[in-house]
Amino acid sequence: MSAREPVLVGGRWQASLDTAGEFRALDPTRAVEVGAAFPISGAQDARAALASACAAAEELAACAPARIAAFLDAYAAAIEADGETLVELAHLETALPARPRLAEVELPRASGQLRQAARAARERSWTQPIIDTAAGLRSHLAPLRKPVLIFGPNNFPFAFNAVAGSDFASAIAARNPVIAKVHPSHPGTSQRLAQLAHRALLDAGLPAQSLQVLYHLDPALGLELAGDARLGALAFTGSRSAGLALKAAADAAGVPAYLELSSVNPVFLLEGALRERGEALAQEFFASCTLGVGQFCTNPGVVVVPRGEAGDAFVAAAAARFDAAPAGTMFSQGVLDHLRAGVAAWRAAGAQPLGGDVAADGEGYRVRPALLGVDAAAFVADRRLQSEAFGPASLAVRVDGIDEALQVAAALEGNLTGTIYGGDSAADDDDWRRLAGALRPRVGRLIDGRMPTGVAVSAAMNHGGPYPSTGHPGFTAVGMPSAIRRFAALHCYDHVRQDALPEELRDRNPGGLSRWIDGGWTLDDIATKTGGTTA
Amino acid sequence: MSAREPVLVGGRWQASLDTAGEFRALDPTRAVEVGAAFPISGAQDARAALASACAAAEELAACAPARIAAFLDAYAAAIEADGETLVELAHLETALPARPRLAEVELPRASGQLRQAARAARERSWTQPIIDTAAGLRSHLAPLRKPVLIFGPNNFPFAFNAVAGSDFASAIAARNPVIAKVHPSHPGTSQRLAQLAHRALLDAGLPAQSLQVLYHLDPALGLELAGDARLGALAFTGSRSAGLALKAAADAAGVPAYLELSSVNPVFLLEGALRERGEALAQEFFASCTLGVGQFCTNPGVVVVPRGEAGDAFVAAAAARFDAAPAGTMFSQGVLDHLRAGVAAWRAAGAQPLGGDVAADGEGYRVRPALLGVDAAAFVADRRLQSEAFGPASLAVRVDGIDEALQVAAALEGNLTGTIYGGDSAADDDDWRRLAGALRPRVGRLIDGRMPTGVAVSAAMNHGGPYPSTGHPGFTAVGMPSAIRRFAALHCYDHVRQDALPEELRDRNPGGLSRWIDGGWTLDDIATKTGGTTA
């Protein structure tokens, strides 16, 4: 008992109140336990975390945005200062390369994202103040004043971690307490991040109970938490089955659920593009498929290739790369099993192997990538071919001309991204446009001529999409200040006195916030006291 | 069969495909059938309406905003031109006063709302364009490209009608087809509106299938429609039980549901306000409770009154008004039964009658208003006292000082509005502030010193609130352009060529739309072609 690591509940690190067992991280390269023993939390931990987060909600909502921003900036700096240790831990627990991936890509992305959230918290454009002086009405987006429950994924130990990633940064920037259920595949990394976050919270003078951290929960307990009406929102990144179960619980309690569930991120290659640079595209596609051993939400799981010479050459070139590829190490046995089950489902629906093979390959969770192929008619007819095989497996769908490509597009479920590569010909231009029209309602981000695996942290990003890729088509999970708006409530003030209004809705606007006043954006003050006309 | 009125399905008025029966409007003043026989639609009607609306989605989404605006403006003008007939029909079917309510308040509100939607469609600020030139990303809110299913309520035959109200105007302004399930208590009014809408659609050159109208459906069929993944969104205004059933169906299919369910709209009266103007407040409260025979979503169903002399005087003055009030006519036997059941539930939970009585009173659906009383402890302990008794019944909750008032506030479920009346004293100021803090997370609109029944159609309005008053705390059902955003999907374009971008995301901005470019709002063009820096 005493050897188990503490949880962060009630504003302090303490022994799990009613641990339901323990677990350790596994080194994916050897499939052996490493590091400390972490508790599997029982109902007491979960309930105490929720009650404690609720208790902090009002105080956190009342904190000055500058203080929130100071916390986020300090936390970002602490992550950078602790980078070497964090990278070492994350590498050990995930087998992701320390360099460049963890140290040079993901860690700076995570700290940069926290700094973007800090800026957004400070400048407050996410609150979208709207003032109608004639009607005496003022409204804005405000903190939920309820906790946000975040389930972090396995695939980004820093940038999507429930204690450091976009959901965390967004929820805190909107001044809501966070209950972080981190992913049990990297508990040591998450603990280290949580320690930095907790210290930075205290240093910034934010309520200690603003952050609760649990490492592992029985799924039934996760559903209990997600379905508690005291929650302000649920954020989840992970598998479709787990996400939909949590969504059902949250829906039943009226809790808005923001989920990133699954996506096959179709890539359409047009005839001209293949003729112009088929070999280069094969390399680009292969690299995107196998980046991070395919463990990306935006991994291109489906590539749509015309029949004929250029398409055949592309498929052959890609297949050769899959054949020759070395094995990579996935996060866990569960991820590996899920990948193989996905590929088996494709096979059962008629897909044929083209290159590589996801069979076991040596020690730990090693696996080689695989490319499979199927014809358009089968893809259109059988939904199993759209099941996400999370990992380095992709499906080439062969189409006879643009009409069949359009049928494939029309058959797609909701996805995070959709990509079209066209060449310089007028025919490709025309096909590009028609495909874009078919893809547009089915994807969150429409990409022209590049692979989907790059997700910039930008206000203009949409890391979201139609169901079932996410739970709501109107929001992005990445990009500040946009992602913050998920964790806000619309608050209206009707003829409320100046000194009882939130700062961004008062007549005076000393911070220079853009506000929509009487029909347009302005930085101006309002001249009269209340209910009057604009300056 | 031939005598039944047609439905609007497939772009034209046609006989119901498989009517499951028929019904007629009832004159509420006499409880006798009036007007034509309307079909209760069966599954074929419902499915044909959905398929037809889906077929129009792409074409409507591609329509120029100016054409959408022209339709909305023309429809508004047609409603006004037909005002006399519409008012007569609505008066007959709802028993709402022809004047001032229907002719001078609600009809101009409905046409004004359509014109606001037209302006919003034209100026396009609802699309919230965001451009990051360095990242090559551009995003905006776009049509769902799927139909919006709207269930209209009984209480606003014009301004919330599924073929003319805010949900309709919002969905069309966002260029989504509408499937309108109008309320069967006013089929003639709805048919007349739908005829005007249909004609205006055709005149404006919008796809005829952009609007489908059904009058009545078996609830199971409503659930089937609401749970169809081909829907873009569900909008519902009505009772909590019906709304939650539809929400569950929509949730399971991943369809965003925007619901206005129920609200008791608590009004807190502070000691000083009562001493200064208790008699006037009693009149104000009584008038708000009984406006439209209490059939308002924002009807003040709970008034919180301090114990003591001033509070007693207020309650006595209010009770006398309820006692002396004449009966009013409600919409239907169902509404009347629901009101009585609600009052009976209050009684069962310990509430005592103070004035008036909701017993039957003469011909038709006539009822007198009623005021009941209960103490704070009972209110806090028993959720039945928060059940909405839709109609002219309110509950006075007596509190011992501000601490008990705060307990009542803290016990409240989510509501559309919360009101506090304070006097000029410093004590009231202090109490006002504390109560506002407690109410703020529990209401969508916080009102200072006026009754909640006025809902201005304003961009700064929030006709929304936390669950269970609505299904999502981040959106308003009333006010343009805000309400439009419910029916939009976030679309991102990643390095997409200029001529394949939607107009509002191109470099050139001839329409002078406000766009968030590289961190701030601007009306400017972007100087370079794509992926470059701002002008």
TrEMBL record, chains A, B:
Coiled-coil ranges (or none): none
PANTHER family for the chain: ALDEHYDE DEHYDROGENASE-RELATED, SUCCINATE-SEMIALDEHYDE DEHYDROGENASE, MITOCHONDRIAL
One function term, GO molecular function aspect: oxidoreductase activity, acting on the aldehyde or oxo group of donors, NAD or NADP as acceptor
Annotated EC: 1.2.1.-
Keywords on record: Oxidoreductase
Residue span, Aldehyde dehydrogenase domain: 21-425
Presence of the UniProt keyword ATP-binding in the record: no
InterPro entries linked: Ald_DH/histidinol_DH, Ald_DH_C, Ald_DH_N, Aldehyde_DH_dom, Aldehyde_DH_Superfamily
Protein name, entry field: Aldehyde dehydrogenase (NAD) family protein
SUPFAM superfamilies listed in its UniProt record: ALDH-like
Taxonomic superkingdom: Bacteria
